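One thing: could you explain this record?
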Amino acid sequence: MKRIIAGVLASALMAAPLTAFAANPITESTEQTGDVTISVEIAPSYTVTIPADTKVKYGDTETAFGKVEMSKARFEPGKCVLISVAGDYALKNKADETKTIPYDVTARMTAEDGETVEGSIKKYGFYGVFAEDSAELTIHISEEDWNKAPAGSYSDVLTFHIGYTDIPKE
């Protein structure tokens, strides 16, 4: 019985007229051309790598702090990544936080025209504009500040903020 019902249904389906529908039908009574739009959206993306924890040697006025590196970046035209760094910019004595050693961090980058640009990240932050950008970071502590510092263990925490924004106007 099941075979007979299946056979009848199959015959009925084969005898039924099939109609195909198009999104933009073109017929004898319409214009003989049709437009379609093809589109895609690509989301901005990037990977930013920040330096690892760093130890400063007593007395050194400059200490390499590693790199901030941007890779696999895909930006909209006119957009970039702004990297700013927040912190106290003072190494605090663990036994007495009123005892500090002030420091600054500079970023050294190579501009698009090949010029080397260096500046304080404390004041300015820095921008990543290209798919493969990097900035070498250096910690600066003056000899005078080293000489004023009492013995002890010191530390500070820097927080890197990464934001997608418009390229700044010069």
Summary: The helical segments are 2-15, 121-124, 143-148.
